[in-house]
Amino acid sequence: MTTTVAAAADFWDAEPGYLNTSSYGLPPRPAWEALQRALADWRGGRTSWESWADAVDESRALFAGLVGVEPAAVATGASVSQLLAPVGAAVPDGATVLVPDVEFTSNVFPWAVHAGRGVTVRTAPVDGFVEAITAGVDVVAWSAVQSATGEVAGDAAISAAARAVGALTVVDVTQAAGWLPVDANAVDVLVGTAYKWLCSPRGTGFLVLHPDLSGRHPGVASRLIPLAANWFAGESVHDSYYGLPLRLAGDARRFDISPAWHCWVGTAPALRLLTEVGVAEIGAHNVGLANSFLTALDQPPSNSAIVSVPADEAAVARLHAAGVRFGMRAGRVRVAFHLYSTPADVELAVRALRG
Questions:
Q1: Rounded to whole angstroms, how far apart are CA atoms 139 and 95?
Q2: Which tens digits make up the pLDDT trace of 242-296?
Q3: 331 has a pLDDT exceeding 90
Q4: Residue 234 pairs with which residues in a beta bridge?
Q5: How far is C-alpha 149 from the geometric centre of its chain's CA atoms?
Q6: 183 with 68: CB under 8 angstroms?
Q7: Is the pLDDT of residue 1 over 70?
Q8: Predicted confidence (pLDDT) per residue in 140-193, tens digit
Q9: Contact in structure between 252 and 73 (CB atoms under 8 Å)
Q10: Do the two domains 5-27+277-354 and 50-273 of this chain adopt the same fold?
Q11: CATH number of the domain at 5-27+277-354, out of 3.20.20.110, 3.90.1150.10, 3.30.70.3270, 1.10.1740.10?
């Protein structure tokens, strides 16, 4: 089943002027209604929890399809930093990790916290990031799309440079998955949360481990253990409630954490609808609106759904007065366009900025 962008947009109830998906995405009606039903059932004690937990595996399979891997390669969790924690713990003592100088801290702190065992985090500017990947770098971690600026990384060039020096590659797709095509097979570790461009409740996320991670990086793979091992990560979930022996899943599911049920109930329908529309189609719509916005402000076009422009205090005040919801990063207005954004939203923001 396929759904056009125009038809899918009717499933959202966005109020005019919402241009802040880079902070949080809006739920489509099927996701919102599924969540309300689950909350009502919870309130009245009308059901057991198993059907809520079923949404985890449906979400896992849908996300796997979005990034081009098998569901067995996907672990589920709550946040980027939580999902990266076991990876950070698995890098060797004295390792050097390279990150962009504007990288969101969820993909910085999980490495930096290991400074006590000699792990060093180095930074490089986005426009010189590939050149900074040299011998002696053990891990290269970056975002497919930068949160602060909307810059789209050259994932293929970064991965190639990292592979050339034997570095582990880790990409955060939180600001990309849902509008930008992503290939999880091109990196060793992929991580992302679903509450932005995947239009889901906050509290759901995914970790993808390359099937040949042990062949590419045997040392890391041998130390990579599920530090939050729990019943939901068991080989047979419903036979893993009590006691020994340790009996974790044999695939990436061993890194699952016990799910926040209702968050996943809202995630599965959102991913289902986005999958029906198609990432490439959503991306073309989003970037088209972003470039309409930039053109109207006499700015050069971009290849991103997230753009930022300079604005003085008066312009920022006009945006607020017009009812535009946006972000402020590094003194610039950051706006983001998604499937539910419209030309009218562009016009509203442009008119306010121009005064």
A1: 8
A2: 999 999 999 999 999 999 999 999 999 999 999 999 999 999 999 999 999 999 9
A3: no
A4: 248
A5: 16
A6: yes
A7: no
A8: 999 999 999 999 999 999 999 999 999 999 999 999 999 999 999 999 999 999
A9: yes
A10: no
A11: 3.90.1150.10
Residue 13's identity, in one-letter code, is D
Name the token pair of 174.
């939180």
DSSP-derived secondary structure letter, 251: S
Among 320, 340, 350, 332, smallest CA distance to 102 is for 332
For 48, 117, 252, 273, the CA distances from 338, given in Å and listed in that order, are 35, 42, 30, 14
Quote the DSSP letter at residue 325.
B
DSSP at 235: S
Identify the sign of the CA torsion 144, 203, 332, 345. Answer: positive
In the chain, where the domains are located? 5-27+277-354, 50-273
Are the C-beta atoms of 222 and 247 separated by less than 8 Å? no
- Taking phi first (over 0 means left), then psi (-120 to 50 degrees means alpha), and beta for anything else, what does residue 97 get? beta
pLDDT at 120 over 90: yes
Please report, as a single letter, which amino acid is at residue 108: V
> DSSP assignment, residue 93?
T
d(CA 282, CA 287): 9
Residues of the chain above pLDDT 90, percent: 99
Angle between helices 279-296 and 261-277 (to 10 degrees): 80
For residues 256 and 22, give the distance between their C-alpha atoms in angstroms, rounded to a whole number: 25
CA 1, chain centre distance (Å): 25
Arithmetic mean of pLDDT, 229-240 = 98
pLDDT digit string, tens, across residues 214-232: 999 999 999 999 999 999 9
CATH architecture of 50-273: 3-Layer(aba) Sandwich (3.40)
Could you report the per-residue pLDDT of 190-210, keeping only the tens digit for each? Answer: 999 999 999 999 999 999 999
Structure-token match 């974790």, residue found: 248
Q: Which two tokens stand for residue 32?
A: 């919102």
Coil/strand/helix, residue 70: coil
Q: For residue 147, what are its two tokens?
A: 């949160």
H-state helical runs in 201-302: 213-216, 218-223, 261-277, 279-296
